[in-house]
Amino acid sequence: MSFLHIHNVHKRFGDTHVLKGIDIAIEKGDFLVLVGPSGCGKSTLLNMIAGLDAISEGELLLNGERINDLHPSRRDIAMVFQSYALYPSMTVAGNIGFGLEMRKVPKAKRREAIQRAAELLQIENLLNRKPAQLSGGQRQRVAMGRALVREPQLFLFDEPLSNLDAKLRVDMRTEIKQLHQRLGTTIVYVTHDQIEAMTLATRIAVMRGGELQQLGTPQSVYDDPNNLFVAGFMGSPSMNLVTARITRQDGALVARIASANNEVTLPIVRDRAALEAWCDRDVMLGLRPEAITDPASANREDGEIHEAELEVALVEPTGADLYVVTRLGGRSINARMRPGAPLSPGQSTRFAFDVSRMVAFDPETEARIRDETDATTQVTARPAALGQNV
Ligand SMILES: Nc1ncnc2c1ncn2[C@@H]1O[C@H](COP(=O)(O)OP(=O)(O)OP(=O)(O)O)[C@@H](O)[C@H]1O
Ligand SMILES: [Mg+2]
């Protein structure tokens, strides 16, 4: 039995069908991150779990109990919103302890809980201040403290870090991760931030237009996307996607991709059985930027490297990496190379492709083309058509 089971949940606002049968199950201690484009229904789903919005159809089970009709105050769930409304006239301690006071928790116990939360969030020295005297990040921590002292069964976070500057976001991200590790709490967390999703989650759910596209570990969603949408959505810089023709060459299956002066031929080593059926047809090929490198940086131990000479179109140093853009299959392709590599636009150089990481998609349905045995992720594959939105 899962700890939180979202079972075939629908939400309609009048005629608008916002959630179209969401199925997600997580275990106690899981950190589920919901991602997806604006308007895909992430906040709606969170609000339904919290009990702030009624469920149109389906079931919500928490710890085996059906909570569809349970009043929010009785769900034992704490939610931290994007705009963490603190009571301006109360001190930090008052804000954190308010919920406990409402529930008539004795003063000594309250003080103890506030102290413990403040220590955890490193805001002990701020307990007597008013919210107006705090920075954004400190306010954020107070809002989190208010949720923490309740020791709920489940935490819900709706883009809690979106108001913070880049540096603070990274610090808070680390703190949330440590908090999760220390307390082992179960969390459902909404974010727009790719790195936040990858670093915090034990499970990622990718949503689009009110439908679940994929549910899996961060690594499986990243390496083994269910469809073109997930492939393009997860990762920054995003996965390279090019049209390729699957053919047979000397008895082996290969992918041929048009390049500026001739063609690049890459051997098919992954999902070979499924791609047999695509011989002499076009597919959409996906390869992550880090799977295209300079030959010296190529991972020859775990990967299967195939080299090709291509022209450099653009060089983008980021400090830690050097992104090199070339043209392939009529598209710009991003390769991650060794920083400091002496490359300049117009020059030809060897690119090393790790073909073991290459994934293929049906250009029409956008579904992944993969071998049965390769399906390591929980699939709800019903790839939404391009442009579709709620
Ligand atoms: N009360 C409502 N009445 C009608 N439609 C609503 C209502 N609340 C939300 N919606 C619609 O439901 C869809 C999903 O909204 P939701 O806020 O869940 O999206 P989201 O994924 O959280 O987006 P964002 O990333 O922008 O926060 C949107 O198209 C929105 O316009
Ligand atoms: Mg939202």
Automatic annotation (TrEMBL):
PROSITE patterns: ABC_TRANSPORTER_1, ABC_TRANSPORTER_2
GO terms under biological process: carbohydrate transport
Coiled-coil zones: none
Enzyme Commission numbers on file: 3.6.3.-
ABC transporter domain segment(s): 4-234
GO MF annotations in UniProt: ABC-type transporter activity; ATP binding; ATP hydrolysis activity
Keyword field contains Transport: yes
SMART domains in the record: AAA
Keyword annotations of the record: ATP-binding, Hydrolase, Nucleotide-binding, Transport
Keyword Nucleotide-binding: yes
PANTHER family assigned to the protein according to its UniProt record, in alphabetical order: ABC TRANSPORTER ATP-BINDING PROTEIN, MALTODEXTRIN IMPORT ATP-BINDING PROTEIN MSMX
Protein name: Trehalose import ATP-binding protein SugC
Classification of source organism: Bacteria, Pseudomonadati, Pseudomonadota, Gammaproteobacteria, Oceanospirillales
